[in-house]
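Supplementary Methods, section 5.1.

A reviewer requested that the exact input to the structure prediction be made available. We therefore reproduce it here, unchanged from the version used in the analyses.
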Amino acid sequence: MEIFLIILSIALAAAGIILTAKIIVIKKAAKEINGQFSRLLQGGTNALINISCADKDMRKLACSLNVSLRELREKELKYVNGDKDLKAAITNVAHDIRTPLTAICGYTDMLKEEKDSAKSLKYLSIISERATDCERCWKIL
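The structure derived from this sequence is encoded token-by-token as follows.
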């Protein structure tokens, strides 16, 4: 009976050592994942999480986080490109509106000073045409 208790004690001690070592390895892997994940979120890099641990559950966790990082980067890229496209569209629309408005203002100033009714009618026609151009721009929006 005494031998059985000695063997059982040795087995329990070995199991305790193995479990302690496994916990230490998993904690180390968790720290690696946490540190890398934080850096990757802050930095503008396309690197992924890489761990030295062979534990399959910790590797699955790193893989899942890498998938999420890729998706996040794709969404960020779409956002940045969409923002650039929106700014370009606004610039183009502003230009398309500003050009006829500038002409309208110029012809209105000329109309105020014009005494000849034929020229006044010509200027009014041009102003009307430019205003129609502006109206078309607004309808596109």
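Residues 56-113 form the longest helix (58 residues). These observations are discussed further in the main text.
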